[in-house]
Design a protein that fits this description.
The structure is a homodimer.
Chain A (H helix, E strand, L loop, with lengths): L2 H8 L4 H10 L1 E5 L4 E3 L7 E7 L1 E7 L5 E8 L3 E2 L2 H6 L6 E4 L3 E7 H10 L1 H27 L2 H11 L3 H4 L2 H8 L3 H9 L2
Antiparallel strand pairs in A: 1-8, 2-7, 3-6, 3-8, 4-5, 4-7
Chain A binds a DNA duplex through helix 9.
Pfam family, one (chains A, B): cNMP_binding
GO molecular function, one term (chains A, B): DNA-binding transcription factor activity
Protein name (chains A, B): Crp/Fnr family transcriptional regulator
Chain lengths: 187, 187
DNA sequence: TTCGCTTTTTGACTTTTATCAAAGAGCCTG
DNA sequence: CAGGCTCTTTGATAAAAGTCAAAAAGCGAA
């Protein structure tokens, strides 16, 4: 979905605002396996995924990769430590499919919120949703077994298994690839 | 710290706004082990902890208690699913020490944000901070060992060990009480 | 279709953590 | 300070998950 369409579903946008948005939104098409942001880099843009899939991950000192989460179409994504605090990113953002993004700069984003308080509502709404998801994630990691977490994911986002390799899913679940493979074979 | 003092440290408050706040803020003193919110209940107040410590936890079907997190003085706390979405809470909020709280109702909170856009800044700031903490928590649970998580907690919040029983800390770390005890004895 | 590469599975073994049970320590109260 | 709590530790054992290595399966390109 195009970002303007998405915004219109959540907010009543005047023709002027739409025009203003069109001026500041940059649209781009990225190939599969393209690294958008890597640790140490600054990221001053907020992206909206029109189509595609982005993996957010980091590497431990020993070189092991861990998937923090997947971002799919119709969602916003950015290197949040960097976008919000101006710090360098600690994570990678990498496409796992051909991906179409729309993005706006940090400055334009701030301006937009200032000029049109309407956007603040959506901003807060999105943060609430992100926090809800994070809380569920924490409790899942804290007290569910690997098998339970696997089954939740299968329930809530079955399509992810068609789109992402099991190695990436395993690290997202916080388990090794072999363990995930064994969980799957036990059914 | 009193909530007004806290707010003044973050925002320039006019005398009128302070007066307005004083009208809507309710201050209360709770004993140790008081349950503020329990699962199924609605919570329409936002609390600020002036003094004390609150544990947020839930119970699995099997009856096992898991600590989602601890909330300490100079922080806001509420049953977020309930305060934000109007759903019944899924968690307990329970004091682990004598606790002094200031709180405002959901309606007053909304009014305040609407009337004084200044507060929206703090609102967003607090949410950013919460999200930062949650992200760190997720990555810790995902790829650190129990020992590493224990050591991080010891680094970042050493005082918690003086204030909270090891059983609660163990469940916060996502491990059994016995495992925590063994980690501690190995040093 | 075949070669080469990546992903997934399987097996053997080790490490980590949970569980159950009981002992020990600490602490409040009468 | 004695008795009865709760909290913490310790021990033995079981379950869960990790690691390493190799085989199997899948897939894309020549």
């Amino acid at each position: 979905m195009h970002i303007i369409t998405f915004l219109q579903q959540h907010l009543p946008l005047s023709a002027e605002v739409v025009e203003e948005l069109q001026k500041i939104i940059v649209r781009e098409h990225l190939p599969k396996n393209h690294v958008l942001v890597r640790p140490g880099q600054h990221c001053r843009r907020l992206f909206f995924i029109e189509e595609g899939l982005i993996r957010e991950h980091y590497q431990s000192l020993s070189g092991k990769e861990t998937t923090y989460r997947f971002h799919t179409e119709d969602n916003f994504v950015t290197a949040d430590e960097s976008f919000i605090d101006g710090q360098p990113s600690q994570y990678y953002l990498e496409t796992l499919e051909e991906t179409t993004l729309c993005s706006i700069s940090h400055e334009d984003f701030e301006q937009l919120l200032k000029r049109h308080p309407l956007f603040e509502q959506l901003h807060v709404l999105v943060m609430h949703q992100v926090m809800r998801e994070m809380k569920e994630r924490i409790t899942a990691l804290q007290f569910q077994t690997a098998t339970e977490r696997y089954e939740s994911l299968l329930q809530n986002q079955p399509s992810i298994f068609q789109r992402v390799s099991l190695g990436h899913i395993a690290s997202y679940l916080g388990i090794s690839q072999e363990t995930l493979s064994r969980i799957r074979s036990k059914k």
